[in-house]
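Title: Prediction job returns without error message
Component: structure pipeline
Severity: low
Priority: P3
Assignee: unassigned

Description:
Job completed but the reporter wants confirmation the result is attached to the right record. Sequence as submitted:
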Amino acid sequence: MADEMTAGSPGKLAVARDFLIETRAEMDRVSWPERPELIKATRAVLIGAVVLGVAIGIVDKILQLILVDFVSVLSR
């Protein structure tokens, strides 16, 4: 704690303040998408997530049938 208070080293509050100022300046330079582009991208992500979820579910069901049910039939 004494090391933080030495001359020349900024305190935690000053470091946090500088970080927030720099973050705000960076956010002003960001080019944000227009609303139609954002809606289109959101739809694409949602559709992709649903398709991927269904595909994973189908593969899971097939593997379950092969590895669990078929193996239990063989072991009888």
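Comment from assignee: result matches the submitted record. Residues 49 and 70 are 30 Å apart (CA to CA).
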